[in-house]
Specification:
This protein is an alpha+beta fold. It is built from four helices and eleven strands. Belongs to the Deltex family.
């Protein structure tokens, strides 16, 4: 009774703060549900409002602990992901070659899942080249990035944090190394924590080793 719903910030014992904006004849304003994996509780109307405000992709992410239910997909525009390999090694990974990922997304028109449907979007700086060490962990990250690409999670349409341009293709919370031989900007090597960090970022988007076993 004393617990708050962290979506609407009302007590779970009181009516949902979204009772007046979410139209549902099946769910009452006092109905409360508990998520099965993480056991966090919310008003059902609040969960419905949160879902309707997202991608409506059949997935739900717990707002408290970020556990994902279902398969999360993003709003990445259509494009192409290519993978190449070469012998030169990356700083900090001198014992192996290099994996080169090339992403290419053209300019286009925003869909219903984007901020301004029907308006054009720009795609600056493509093709974008990114680098991974060609070792066991680097290859695992590559396979998970392929899953993230298929689920449209690597890029999105939004506002560029570097230029302030709106309606443009931007990175979406999964960091990539875009420089091979220096790490002045944080986008290059050496970086001993990078592979572990990107695995955690992929997991936060619901992309884990379990996804590889399901393929």
């Amino acid at each position: 009774p004393d617990e708050d719903c962290i979506i609407c910030m009302e007590k779970l014992s009181a009516a949902s703060g979204y009772s007046d904006v979410t139209d549902s004849k099946a769910i009452g304003p006092l109905a409360v549900g508990r998520l099965t994996k993480c056991s966090h509780a919310f008003h059902l109307l609040c969960l419905l409002a949160m879902y309707c405000n997202g991608n409506k992709d059949g997935s739900l992410q717990c707002p408290s602990c970020k556990t994902i239910y279902g398969e999360k997909t993003g709003t990445q525009p259509q494009g192409k992901m290519e993978v190449l390999r070469f012998q030169m090694s990356l700083p900090g990974h001198e014992d192996c070659g290099t994996i080169l990922i090339v992403y290419n997304i053209p300019h286009g028109i925003q869909g219903p899942e984007h901020p301004n449907p029907g308006k054009p979007f720009t795609a600056r700086g493509f093709p974008r080249q990114c680098y991974l060490p060609d070792n066991a962990q680097g290859r695992k990250v590559l396979e998970l990035l392929k899953v993230a690409w298929k689920r449209r999670l690597i890029f999105t349409v939004g506002t560029s944090s570097t230029t302030g341009e709106t309606d443009t293709v931007v990175w979406n919370e999964i960091h990539h190394k875009t420089e091979m031989d220096r790490n002045v900007t944080g986008h290059g090597y050496p970086d001993p924590n990078y592979l572990q960090n990107v695995l955690a970022e992929l997991a936060a988007q619901g992309v884990t080793e379990d996804c590889l076993e399901q393929q």
